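User: Some background: our group keeps a shared notebook of sequences we're curious about, and every so often someone picks one and asks for a predicted structure to add to the entry. Today it's my turn. The entry only has the sequence so far, pasted here. Could you supply the structure so I can complete it?
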Amino acid sequence: MTRNLIFGSLLLISSQFAVAQDVNWKPVGDKIMSPWAEKVNPKETLQEYPRPQLVRKGWQNLNGLWQYAITSKTEQNIPSNFQGKILVPFAVESALSGVGKTVGKDQALWYKNTIKLEAVNSKEDVLLHFGAVDWQCDVYVNGQQVGSHQGGFDPFYFNISKYLKKGKTQEIAIRVWDPTDEGPQPRGKQVKNPEGIWYTPVTGIWQTVWLENVPKTYIAHTKQTPDVDKKSLTFYAQVEGSQSGDQVKVLALDGDKVLAEQTVTAGSEANLSVPGVELWSPSNPKLYDLRVSVLRKGRVIDETTSYFAMRKISMAKDGKGIQRLMLNNEFVFQYGPLDQGWWPDGLYTAPTDEALLFDIVKTKEMGFNMIRKHIKVEPARWYRYCDSLGLLVWQDMPSGDLGGNRWDNHPGQLSGYNLDKERSAESEAYHKKEWKAIMDALHNFPSIVVWVPFNEAWGQFKTKEITEWTIQYDPSRLVNSASGGNFLKTGHILDIHNYPDPSMPDPALFGEKQVLVLGEFGGLGLPIEGHTWQEKNNWGYQSFKNKEELLKRYTKLIEDLKRLIPLGLSAGVYTQTTDVEVETNGMMTYDREVIKIPETQLNQLHQTLYQQSIQ
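Assistant: Of course. Here's the predicted structure to add to the notebook entry:
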């Protein structure tokens, strides 16, 4: 797959994004908005291809204006009357939805849309895809229920072929129920009553909705894992509707040059030898293409494209016997911002693809080489941009079912406290199911190097079991079992949080068995007048009056952090990329209009971190 598919949309002239004069939609509310809000066009909303790791030509975007209704939770029938229009895929509480209403645990949110299929072929099936819907979702096509899904952060689809009626016109309806923080499900940082580090609820569709035309036998999913030491790539394609004798052919490409190819029986794993290829890193984010075909008696019956990179993340002891984070068998200090991924106008959803890319570009320009994606999962295109630009990613599991256990952020604390929460069987099942779904959906993105199952004891349960399952399920990455949470001697990484100044676990006590990292620090606050979520009572972990004071204090933090690296520190995470609602401790304001410390100055400061030598 060429990069033009991903980046081509950014070349469109701005006039093409002018807001349509549609009487059925306009942003609502009185909060600040990002500069991309005025480029949102309800007739051309987030039209980019949503699944860069599995590209197929036959698809149709369904984003745009849908009808909506908010009913009692007990209502199970598609409403006969709808209350207005909502702009999909923006959550109903957001300004860009055009609605701006709270739903809550006692109500259900309904969507309905009449669509026209752009391509109808009796020899093909039609799949209805959802990037993400928060939280419980029932889907209807032409009045018939086709399926249900629970999970606010993972993509899913239904084969709707048998529910289609003759002709191109079809009706889709969706029922969503989301209890936010009044239920045990993973919900991230959204709460019924936002305050401090907890934000506005997000209910309903918040990623692209789309249709895909596929053959009766088609590639549903791929899994590719690099092995740098063996100079090989293992590859598996899940093929739906396969028949005896079907084969899968996979080609690894560098442009038009074939690096390797192999044909295996459908359902079998391929192993491609790729000696001599460039290794992926933040300084050299080299990507290679994949072309995958299903063959039946030598004839291609389905074909998709994807990409991969050769990258290894591991841990190894330095000369002092302290475990270190290793990238491609070399120590690279990892430093990045805590990235919440929230928007003042779209909440979970960036207003445009250009906006989605902006935060990553600025992070790279500031000289960070890593991002900790905090308590949220992004659309697939976000990870593709990290792959392309060269940002390492630590991926958090969105938390849920908080409370009931003690938080102890001090390694070596005496035992006897309920460090693991006792969750109901239902609650545990929600977490385990969605964590697996997230890992499956994101496995192929080489930028992701660390999984983070828990943060600060938020709903933390069965830590050892969850951590060891995660390690076993994906041995190609490291696992940070509890970032700043309750430490139970499991996982590859020991991660403390300390505000505002840098700190680290004692290498003499903990460095022999685990990599030592500072998973959160900093949080220096600077509210910028005219660019805050609210006029008063904004906060940071330590607040300043102007940019000069902020830069001076941040420089001191970097100098202190630098001294910890030779002692055994392998990574640091600064809070945070942007302001979020009442938090004003971002490198940028929430609307992305103001960068508080110039990118060039930050870059120069951060380069000194990567120059620290270890024995």
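Suggested note for the entry: The helical segments are 4-7, 353-365, 380-389, 425-442, 463-473, 507-510, 547-564, 599-610. The longest strand covers residues 107-116.
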